[in-house]
UniProtKB/TrEMBL annotation:
<keyword id="KW-0472">Membrane</keyword>
<feature type="domain" description="SH3b">
    <location>
        <begin position="16"/>
        <end position="79"/>
    </location>
</feature>
<feature type="coiled-coil region">
    <location>
        <begin position="85"/>
        <end position="140"/>
    </location>
</feature>
<feature type="signal peptide">
    <location>
        <begin position="1"/>
        <end position="16"/>
    </location>
</feature>
<dbReference type="GO" id="GO:0016020">
    <property type="term" value="C:membrane"/>
</dbReference>
<keyword id="KW-1133">Transmembrane helix</keyword>
<keyword id="KW-0732">Signal</keyword>
<dbReference type="InterPro" id="IPR016476">
    <property type="entry name" value="SH3_dom_pro"/>
</dbReference>
<dbReference type="Pfam" id="PF08239">
    <property type="entry name" value="SH3_3"/>
</dbReference>
<keyword id="KW-0812">Transmembrane</keyword>
<feature type="transmembrane region" description="Helical">
    <location>
        <begin position="181"/>
        <end position="202"/>
    </location>
</feature>
<protein>
    <submittedName>
        <fullName>SH3 type 3 domain protein</fullName>
    </submittedName>
</protein>
<keyword id="KW-0175">Coiled coil</keyword>
<dbReference type="InterPro" id="IPR003646">
    <property type="entry name" value="SH3-like_bac-type"/>
</dbReference>
Length: 214
């Protein structure tokens, strides 16, 4: 008989389930499954218990480490309203704390977003200014390149003109020297012809004079 009871107790422990003392009750935890058994302690409403086994109208439970018997009709597997209210109150408080934290973070994020937006606006303004300056520099550089090209072309033209002028001057010098030489030859020829003519005329005059006195 003791073996059977022990087996039943083991089976009951193996299949223990959670339950609660029903609302608006304070029940007795007794040493046995009758109202005449000793009261071990009082269990207030919503006290969680572990149901070890049930025998007709009584259930063997463990509450706060103490095992005893309670009337099964005073147990419920549904979470009591008091515990639900308490749990919901805690959850609500947690949600409120999270909401406050999220609101604070949202405010901080909004401030950061505004700061980022201001930085973005400043960056866009600086970019537009830099683009304008770059366009001006590019235009100025193009004008400088054009002026430098024109200057280089003028220098090249000046050098070419100077070279041509020098060549022309040398040619003029050559022509001038040749002309002078020709004039010199012409003059020399005239002088020579004059001398020859003078000599010829002199001879003719002497011959004529000799004939007159002969």
């Amino acid at each position: 008989m003791l073996v059977i009871i022990a087996v039943l107790l083991v089976v009951g422990v193996a299949h223990a389930q959670s339950a609660y003392v029903t609302d608006v009750f304070e029940i007795t935890l007794r040493s046995g499954p009758t109202n005449s058994n000793k009261i071990l302690k009082m269990l207030p409403s919503s006290t969680p218990v572990e149901v070890l086994r049930t025998d007709k109208d009584w259930s063997l439970v463990r509450a706060d480490g103490v095992e005893g018997w309670v009337l099964a009709r005073y147990l419920t597997r549904t979470t009591p309203a008091a515990l639900q209210v308490e749990r919901f109150a805690k959850e609500t408080e947690t949600l409120r704390a999270k909401m406050a934290e999220m609101t604070e973070k949202t405010s901080a994020t909004a401030g950061e977003n505004q700061a980022l937006l201001d930085r973005l606006n400043r960056a866009e303004t600086e970019l537009a200014s830099l683009q304008q300056r770059y366009a001006e520099l590019e235009q100025g550089s193009k004008a400088y390149v054009d002026l430098k090209r024109a200057h280089d072309e003028l220098l090249a033209l000046q050098a070419e003109t100077a070279q041509r002028a020098e060549a022309l001057e040398m040619k003029n010098r050559d022509l001038s020297g040749d002309t002078q030489f020709r004039w010199f030859l012409t003059g020399a020829g005239v002088v020579g012809a004059s001398l020859l003519l003078g000599l010829a005329l002199g001879r003719m005059q002497r011959k004529k004079t000799g004939r007159m006195f002969a």
